[in-house]
Design goal:
- By secondary structure, the chain is α/β, with parallel strands linked by helices.
- The protein folds into 2 domains: 121 residues, Rossmann fold (3-Layer(aba) Sandwich), CATH 3.40.50; 222 residues, Alpha-Beta Barrel (TIM Barrel).
- It is 33% helix and 17% strand.
- It has 13 helices and 15 strands.
- It has a 7-stranded mixed sheet, with helices on both faces. Strands 12-13-14-15 form a 4-stranded parallel sheet, with helices on one face.
- α13 links the parallel β14 and β15.
- α12 runs parallel beside α13.
- The chain is globular and about 60 Å long.
Length: 371
């Protein structure tokens, strides 16, 4: 259908989302800035203010464009985003975005499209929520953009700081092995996105390692390097087991594993609803080392309600992980919209914590941002 040009505002920070949506919008192209026509943005919270300035500047210049935003930040704060944008896609975009663009091109009432928000006569309109998508019906990417293969979406744990279950639901959905293979054949090496790679084929609460093995065995037959449970995926520490690590050693190339630990305080782990203990983190790291795999553990400092003792327990955990041969990625808590902790301020970062973590960073054992 003819109509205004459609552009995806591409950047390295949203490239995986754009890779999945680009093939679904007929005639859409990539842009490195605003263009006349329909401009599509995928926005995470850290980029929101910069994007607002860009869109406002384009409007001030007289550019004739409709601006549509999607992603975690617009989904959680549509009213805020609509001070700058014309429409917001709430939640997953595979079905909603093409339908909205079709409505705009054809002059149909956008209010008939499920899963969007817009302003009408000065009032916020939020249409009926759309059901979650079947991953097999939509690509994880398509040429010319390549991306890691999304094998799972959704998470049942509901961690208080995380946007994933609020955006994608609390039931895990998995891409089938034939669909994964169709994407894998376009890559020279295979990498994946998943909230918990070792939960593939399961309900996300308990592993189904026979399904993980079926996936990895099938992928290994392609003769390409397989990187499983590494960035941009991670695994939960309570899913790390002897058998899981044997599968990685048998079928995969990676000798590192990204593990979501988050805190060295059991009290804080309970308060953020992680569903595992500090002991689970340490056991996962020990098992990795025993199997010749380097654990790379994510930790969050300055979580709301974190006491000085809690924070130092996390620092001590980081030091123990490094002492046994692991690595740490440490981050300062950022309140994300749509999560139970969105209105909570970070706890202060202790000087001693900063110094001790800084020493690990200088030794090349810790990465991340604590500013």
């Amino acid at each position: 259908m003819s109509g205004p040009d459609v552009w995806f505002r591409w950047s390295r920070k949203n490239r995986y989302t754009i890779a999945a949506l680009l093939p679904l919008v007929s005639g859409a192209r990539l842009a490195d800035g605003p263009r006349p026509g329909i401009m599509l943005y995928s926005i995470a919270t850290p980029q929101a203010e910069e994007v607002y300035r860009e869109v406002d500047a384009a409007r001030s210049s007289g550019m004739r464009s409709l601006f549509i935003a999607g992603g975690p930040h617009p989904s959680a704060r549509p009213a805020e985003v609509l001070r700058h944008f014309d429409y917001v896609v709430i939640g997953e975009g595979e079905e909603t975005l093409p339908e909205l663009i079709d409505a705009l091109r054809s002059g149909r009432d956008p209010g008939s499209v499920k899963g969007i928000a817009y302003m009408k006569d000065g009032e916020l309109v939020v249409t009926e929520r759309r059901d979650f998508v079947d991953l097999d019906l939509y690509p994880s990417f398509s040429r010319p953009l390549l991306a890691p293969i999304e094998i799972s979406r959704g998470c049942p744990w509901g961690c208080a700081y995380c946007q994933t279950p609020r955006l994608c639901g609390n039931v895990m959905r998995h891409r089938s092995i034939p669909s994964i293979l169709s994407h894998a054949r376009m890559h020279m090496d295979l990498r994946f996105t998943s909230p918990n790679a070792l939960a593939y084929g399961s309900d996300g609460l308990r592993p189904r390692l026979e399904r993980v093995e079926m996936l990895l065995r099938t992928l290994s037959e392609l003769g390409r390097p397989v990187y499983f449970g590494t960035f941009p995926s991670e695994v939960r520490p309570d899913f790390v087991s002897e058998r899981a690590l044997e599968l990685i050693n048998t079928y995969c190339t990676n000798r590192k594993l990204s593990i979501g630990g988050q805190s060295g305080s059991d009290r804080i782990l309970r308060s953020i609803n992680r569903g595992h203990s500090v002991h689970d983190i340490e056991m996962a790291c020990e098992l990795c080392i025993d199997h010749g795999i380097i654990p790379n553990v994510d930790l969050i400092l300055c979580l709301p309600g974190e006491s000085e003792e809690d924070q130092m327990l996390t620092v001590e955990l980081a030091e123990r992980i490094v002492g046994m041969g692991g690595r740490v990625r440490a981050h300062r808590f950022m309140p994300l919209p749509g999560t139970p902790l969105e209105s909570r301020e970070p706890s202060p970062l202790l000087r001693e914590a900063k110094l001790r973590l800084g020493r690990l960073a200088l030794a090349g054992k810790l990465k991340g941002r604590l500013h």
